[in-house]
Amino acid sequence: MFKKIIAIASDHAGYELKVLLGETLELQGFSVLDLGTDGLQPVDYSDFADDMAKVIRNKEVDRGVLICGTGIGISIAANRHTELRAALIHDALGARLSRQHNDANIIVFGGRTIGTEVAKDCLDLFLSTEFEGGRHKQRIYKTSKI
Ligand code: RB5
């Protein structure tokens, strides 16, 4: 089982969804480590991917949520860090398989592209689904060496 503390970060375009998902996680009994941003003032999403990598690397958290407008920029930035396996998710199947097959430790959303109920449902699945291991382990190992 992973730590019951979830890091969450976004740029300005993901700020509103970040607030909503943070509140939802707290209601579910998780502690939330909010890495910002703190408002709608434009910021660079890559800074928040870097901050997420730090808290994962330091083992402060095992799982995180990253959000930008489409989820694309912050996914690209996140996956430059070898300790992050960030999955940009749009639906429940993706959320479940990102855990079962990819052992994703970061779920990424597009704040401008996903509905709030879909995002909440995907986050639930992401946090409640285990990695299957087996044949997927070697693929993840090879990917982490790139
Ligand atoms: C910000 O306007 C927007 O470009 C950013 O949130 C993200 O969608 C980039 O991929």
Give a structural overview.
The protein is built from six helices and five strands; from the N terminus they run E-H-E-H-E-H-E-H-E-H-H. The protein is an alpha/beta fold and 146 residues long. It has one domain (5-144): 3-Layer(aba) Sandwich (Ribose 5-phosphate Isomerase B, Chain: A), CATH 3.40.1400.10. Strands 2-1-3-5-4 form a five-stranded parallel sheet, sandwiched between helices. Strand 1 (5-10), helix 1 and strand 2 (31-34) form a beta-alpha-beta unit. Helix 2 (45-57) runs parallel beside helix 3 and helix 4 packs parallel to helix 5 (116-128). The chain is globular, with a radius of gyration of 14 Å. The two termini are 28 Å apart. 38% of the residues are buried. The model has no long low-confidence stretch (mean pLDDT 96).
